Amino acid sequence: MPEALNACSADARWLAAAAALAARARPLSAPNPGVGALIVRDGRVVARGWTQPGGRPHAEAVALAAAGEAAQGATLYVTLEPCAHRSPRGPACADLVCASGLARVVAGCMDPDPRTSGAGLARIAAAGIEAEFLSSPACARSLSGYLTARRLGRPEVTLKLALSLDGCIALPSGESQWITGPEARAHTHAMRARADAILVGGGTLRADSPRLDVRLPGLEGRSPQRFVLTRGGVPDGWRALPAPAALADMEGILHLFVEGGAGAASAFLAEGLVDRLLIYRAPILLGGRSALGDIGLGSLSEAHGRWRMTERRQLGSDTLEVYEACNPAGS
User: Fold this and answer.
1) What does UniProt list as catalytic (predicted)?
2) Is 60 designated active site?
3) From the candidates 60, 81, 156, 324, which is the catalytic residue?
């Protein structure tokens, strides 16, 4: 029994490492999910891979090509079940695995795509390779946008709020740059770089003319597509989202980052379309404009039990709190 527990613990650690590796794929792999893969032999990583820009090659294909003969008798740890469907853009990863000489495959998430769902691991097992599914929270988090899109037909939505201690996003005059310090703003840019699209409300666009790009050295090329919540016209380089409910029409978008202002934030919350909150809190008092308007709550009791904190960290003089919806689509 202790040996089995140790093996399971080791598998979980390798899957978590593959999930961390998968971050390199995001968001360039869109519209395909960003998957991470590690090939391990005798407790040592012999190859690794992640989904390449545009979605191909897949992580398993990259790792197997890098491993070569070292894949013989090794274990593949992959964040998502290897695909079972063939594509004009590349072979099915399950077929590559079957021909690889691997001894074992461990997947951290089953693929909800009906073309693969269960068939990938079944095909691998039929080829005589040990194939296991070990539910991994780390892998599910890394694939949250893909899982949300598959299960709910819309992108995963992260709402970012930069607040004063009294919950304001601007002075009474409307001045809002900058509430948080440079460390928090740099973190926001890193979060932008992980999104496929970024959205603000029409009022924020008119008042601030935000660039909404990524201004971190080396990540400038990961600036997301820019959307504005409006039914009217938009400037060049922007796209319109007429209403939060139109998320399903955002083709190819897995991760949407909503930055403001109060109207847009309130609209998404009122529709129950926010999966994750990033709250950057600065140690200042403003007595100004509130971060939110009406979000559709009929009673105080309805406000409880909706969010759970998953992370808290200090960013210079500011504090970041991360909350996830209590019933996330990717769980």
Assistant:
1) 60 (proton donor)
2) yes
3) 60
